Amino acid sequence: MAAYETGARYDAGRALAVVRPQTTQEVSAVLSYCVRHGLAVVPQSGNTGLVSGSTPDAAGGQVVLSLDRMTRHFALDADNRSLEADAGLLLSDVNRRLEASGLFFPIDLGADPRLGGMIATNTGGSRFLKYGDVRRNVLGLTVVLADAEGTILEFGQALRKNNTGVDWKQLFIGTSGAFGVVTRCVLNLERLPLQTATAYLVPAGPEAVMPLLRMMEERLGTTLSAFEGMSRNAIAAALDHVPSLRNPFQNGEIPDYVILAEVSRTWQARESEEPLGDMLESVLAEIFETEAAPLADAFIGPAHEMWALRHALSEGVKQSGRLIAFDVAFRRGDIMAFCERMKRDMPERFPQGRICDFGHIGDGGVHLNIVFPRDAEGLADGSLETALRDWVYAVTVEDFAGSFSAEHAIGRKNQHYYDLYTPQKIKDMACGLLTLTSPGGLGTVRFG
Amino acid sequence: MAAYETGARYDAGRALAVVRPQTTQEVSAVLSYCVRHGLAVVPQSGNTGLVSGSTPDAAGGQVVLSLDRMTRHFALDADNRSLEADAGLLLSDVNRRLEASGLFFPIDLGADPRLGGMIATNTGGSRFLKYGDVRRNVLGLTVVLADAEGTILEFGQALRKNNTGVDWKQLFIGTSGAFGVVTRCVLNLERLPLQTATAYLVPAGPEAVMPLLRMMEERLGTTLSAFEGMSRNAIAAALDHVPSLRNPFQNGEIPDYVILAEVSRTWQARESEEPLGDMLESVLAEIFETEAAPLADAFIGPAHEMWALRHALSEGVKQSGRLIAFDVAFRRGDIMAFCERMKRDMPERFPQGRICDFGHIGDGGVHLNIVFPRDAEGLADGSLETALRDWVYAVTVEDFAGSFSAEHAIGRKNQHYYDLYTPQKIKDMACGLLTLTSPGGLGTVRFG
């Protein structure tokens, strides 16, 4: 059972049992049984989450309900650009099976989760700027409630327009499975990009990042499909620890901050059409020539290499010491100010912490990673992590009106901050909602 | 008070009073007062809805809470591409004030509603295909609950990524104001289109519409910003009754079905770039040359003329007799089959009814309009309308798994069908939810 008791990066708990149903009916039977016998259930999808949302606690009393055998149903509706699929399918499997149709589920992640977990955490990813989050791409859901009957509900199905009451499916998106278990979904699909061009942009300074994004959006519209920020420390960590990477910078000198910009088109290149690389080049040239240009340097390069570095940041940072990671979000205009604030105050508060941030500048998400030496004081007993989290989230929420969880949802790891930052009225409403839907309780989070 | 008692197209009721607060605090005071004194409240925004969702009933006991003075707050955040605005602002005012920034709120409607009502009905409009509905474009909401305290809640604000619990703002979108009154919102903005090209496409037959849409999407991606269907009857009605229109078809012969296709780019035309009109032309030429081409005819024309006809359909149909209108939605692949089914069965069931449908093929929405002679039997006593609605919705929901309200929401007019087609469990949940949020009750719809 170890694979089901251990999280992707953190946590190892003990399960009373692992149950692996194959159909919605079986999930219903399991939940009904567990509710009637007072057994706590933790739904588990790909178990790739980073906030301890899918593993049992250490007490050994929780039943893990795994979706990993719910992989049979896969029905493409090409006219509707939608897919009806079981919630246990892996993202990679879904997109491999869709490839021949020229369509894909446009959530781009480093990990390879299953659909149910993506819905329960409302993941975003690297191309949010163009395609939005999971919420935007869910057309319908089948869920099973944790009540004595194991009630099965179907919402929305494959319709894009449907305003006939409360949009109940929203309740099950991004709430870590606490209100019901998603067993099947209908997803919006997009056309696969068939032309892309990528560039590394070096902004003239932190304050130049927003003008640069605005100029790119102004000149490229939704052709701009990614605008990802990478700090020097994060890049250095990746280059140091991921041997397959090549240092792409002149003389190997990593700039303070680098933007990975991607443009893409979803159709075959036409002869009459300006190639995408030329278009990107001329847009960058134009930006260089503006007064007080926000761009210090820029070069176009091979997409796979440029993305390989971006995708290796997480691994590199993890390997470079003891990592304490944050997934926070802001108004776009506040991102760099937040990062500067961290850089300014960290040395005094946590002198051993090295900031290795990267983020999705286009949508306001920041992966703030703080790396400590493995023997740093307070690591072993957790006191360092607690103090750091308290401070980072206080700055995020109180000073910047940001979010303490951009796309990782809650889980046990964020429970304390949910409790701290959620108004009592909202907690009461969530509590009441739980009574209405899954009074048996589900998952690892207490919303009430 | 007449303007507040009378709906845009249907209904004239009587109000006990009309209250016109100017701030969220004043809305709170009004709702608190009304709840404590047992007064029923109907929130009213632009009052342009078509399902009797914003007018009082005939009994004269309901208070109309108008948003029309809540127009002061208007705060553009250009970096974040978002607008924080009071809910009483007119859509046209919002977009006029945004124009200089190159941004707009991308919901394209024939009517000119206020923001609060657009949120309460989750409107879609003619460019849903590219920009989605209101739900997709709402980042944050301030709402006031109908409880004894007139509780004020703020959700989400200006963040694009925020997964820290239940996404409560979803509850107030598309639910006709029944769970709370939206007083302020934060909206996602998009860049204004700066290049467009439009064409009328004549599909080879009803079965060619979907292949045509798929080919267009394949070759144009999100450059395709509208794909609107217009039936001959709807076009004829507009040409007959709206004198400013010009008949654009060869020899004035209106085809059975016409698609208005629009492509757009949000940046200034560049010299190196193929003009959008040329691109559209070459795509259409390519489609003409495919085997079993789905296209019988096509011509590019001036955008304002082509859209003028599209936007006049509603008015033309209304003027051509006594109109009974439906706003239904389907999987995209079912739209034409549904319309064919109506054409096949209407003559026998409702021999005097003329079908004047048009719709948003790109998102599955159909405006099914049935026009009767003004003296048709059963019109005066409402029996014809009831029989027709019962039948059309039964085919929509039972035979096609479609929606009986695509983008008009519920209102008094759809109450009966909500009651009929909503499972008891969902009604119970909605009832419980109302108790949790606005126990005083609000609006014209009973969800429980």
UniProtKB/TrEMBL annotation, chains A, B:
Q: Which Pfam families match?
A: FAD-oxidase_C (PF02913), FAD_binding_4 (PF01565)
Superkingdom classification of source? Bacteria
| InterPro entries (alphabetical) | FAD-bd_oxidored_4_C, FAD-bd_PCMH, FAD-bd_PCMH-like_sf, FAD-bd_PCMH_sub2, FAD-linked_Oxase-like_C, FAD-oxidored/transferase_4, Oxid_FAD_bind_N
Its required cofactor(s), as named, are: FAD
Check the record and name the SUPFAM superfamilies matching this protein.
FAD-binding/transporter-associated domain-like, FAD-linked oxidases, C-terminal domain
| Gene3D superfamilies, sorted | 3.30.465.10, 3.30.70.2190, 3.30.70.2740
List the source organism.
Ferranicluibacter rubi
Q: Which residues form the FAD-binding PCMH-type domain?
A: 11-192
Q: Supply the name of the protein.
A: FAD-binding oxidoreductase
GO BP of this protein: respiratory electron transport chain
What keywords were assigned to this record? FAD, Flavoprotein, Oxidoreductase
Q: Which GO terms describe its molecular function?
A: FAD binding; oxidoreductase activity
